[in-house]
Every structure is written in structure tokens, then in C-alpha cells.
Fold this sequence. Notes:
Elements: E1 3-5, H1 10-19, E2 23-24, H2 41-51, E3 54-58, H3 66-74, E4 78-82, H4 90-110, E5 115-119, E6 124-128
Helix pairs in contact: 1-4
Amino acid sequence: MAYYFDASILGPAIAFARLRPDVIHPGHPECPPAISPSTPDDEWLPIAGREGWIVIMRDKKIRSRPGERRALLDHGVAAFCLTTSGNKSKWQMAQILMRHWERIEEVTAEVPRPFIYAVTQRDVRPIVPRS
């Protein structure tokens, strides 16, 4: 299992990959060459689903974008979306992820895929509840 950080949070991704061997991102040696920072979602999402990656991304508007939610779910992806308001720096995004990493791992271990969770400054909670 790998945690795949998408290009929307590449700065924190590079830092996390230096700390954890299970983190990959566009440009990482273990990431397929077909995935670059400019690869459209509809091209990397099927790969993420097939590989069983846990996707970490930034999308403040995921709640209001049913097409994006559907694409994640259709490809069987487990996703955590940073949904905090305002323009957060790379450091601030990394802090939020670090604060909630234990909970991210718990959800990953306990919740059947596919799922989408929001990661905010305060907590980690489902965006698309399981039915």
C-alpha cells in the first residue's frame, strides 16, 4: 500500500516522501512515468484505483463537485482531501496532515473502499458516507 500525494500538494508530498517509504507523488522514482504533475485526473485516477493507493489531495470544493467525487468512487479510490479555507502554505498543509496522520491511517485500515474524507484544521470526517 502506498499513499499517493497528487500534484496539488507537491511540496508537502516531497517532504513526506523523505520521511516515509510508503509515500509517492508525481516525479517520485516509484511513481509510474505516465504520471506527471500535469497528468489530468481522469488519467491518474484509474492507476491509483488499480494500485490500491490512498490518495491525498487538496480540493477545497470537492463537496460541490459531484463529477470529481464520482470519478474517485468509480475508480475505487480511498481519498483524503484537504478542504481548509484560504490559501495555505506548503508548511501549513504539512502541519494539518501531520496533526491528523494517525486518524488517516485509522480510517485507511477500518473503512472499506471507496471513500472520500475531508481533512480540515480541526478533524478528519467523511464527505461521502458509506451507505
